[in-house]
Amino acid sequence: MSAALDLVVAAVDDTVPGVRSVRLVRPDGGALPGFTPGSHVVVTCGPPGAPGNAYSLTGDSVAPRAYTISVLRLDAGRGGSRWVHALTTGDRVEVTPPRSAFPPVLAARRHLLVAGGIGVTPILSHLRSAVRWGRDVEVLYAHRPGAAAHLDDLRDLAGDALTCLTDRTTLGDHLQRRLADQPVGTHLYTCGPAGFMDTVTLAARRLGWPDERIHVEHFGVDDLDPGEPFEAVLRASGRTVPVPSGTSLLDALEGAGLSVPNLCRQGVCGECRVPVAAGTPLHRDLVLTDAEKAAADTLLCCVSRAADDRLELDL
Ligand code: FES
């Protein structure tokens, strides 16, 4: 993975209650790597040793001079959002290069973007790209009254192609109608709370949308089950490291004295990838492609485990 970027907070915006938007730039003001629409970065800005958190980039993906993120404050979370809400102009943060698991399908005939709450962030990135390249696009944005992040941006970009929905009944009815009334070749992209995305994808599937035209963006894998216990065998030393239920492979390896690079510990940054020599990984990350998962020769050890009782690692 490319080296993390050391960026400076250039501005913060707290206009929408509970949501902080942060603009990050290079200390020298130079250009930042471009990115695929829908990309996220992992931002590390908490106390020493704190894990990073993944946030979608909301700005223009072409030749950016700044990265912008918008973060909903969650007081019950792991702390990442509170740390972002404590940032002030001039603070330094570590940011991974952008990574995408939610890119637009360029061959799509039309793009239907469906956002729920703060899930609007990658949807905004998709919308910017669709408008820039003249693609046919429609946006549905479900939000609480008075709590819509980036509403002005969406209005400016989408115009009449934007529909805002602020109550469940209207949302359900409108979603049903719009999903049923799209030309063949339309791709659906959705991001928001897990229950919201389940509602959107279930409605689409019931209307006959094929899975390859439904795209979902998750922000992390907080709710994983504790998993079955297994043994990790380290090929270089022949050591066996037990991995109990409820303990991640990463924690077990660190407990055995190994140093494994990591950032997010949530299966979203890709930093903790380790090579698999034998055995079948049980992949639970949001980074590896389907082909990489099928190859079974690597896994992200912060969230993924063994499908059987033993996994041999090239460590
Ligand atoms: S530490 Fe980020 S994917 Fe494992």
UniProtKB/TrEMBL annotation:
Arranged from A to Z, the UniProt key words for this protein are: 2Fe-2S, Flavoprotein, Iron, Iron-sulfur, Metal-binding, Oxidoreductase
Source superkingdom: Bacteria
Establish whether keyword Translocase is in the entry.
no
User: Which positions fall inside the 2Fe-2S ferredoxin-type domain?
Assistant: 230-315
Gene3D superfamilies listed in its UniProt record: 3.10.20.30, Nucleotide-binding domain of ferredoxin-NADP reductase (FNR) module, Translation factors
Citing just one GO molecular function, the answer is:
oxidoreductase activity
Family annotation (Pfam families): DmmA-like_N (PF22290), Fer2 (PF00111)
PROSITE patterns noted in UniProt: 2FE2S_FER_2, FAD_FR
Q: Which cofactor does it need?
A: FAD
Query: Which CDD domains does the protein's record reference?
Result: fer2 (cd00207), PDR_like (cd06185)
Task: Report domain FAD-binding FR-type positions.
Answer: 1-105
Matches recorded under PANTHER family:
CARNITINE MONOOXYGENASE REDUCTASE SUBUNIT, NADH OXIDOREDUCTASE HCR
In its UniProt entry, what is this protein called?
A: Ferredoxin
Q: What is the lineage of its organism?
A: Bacteria, Bacillati, Actinomycetota, Actinomycetes, Propionibacteriales
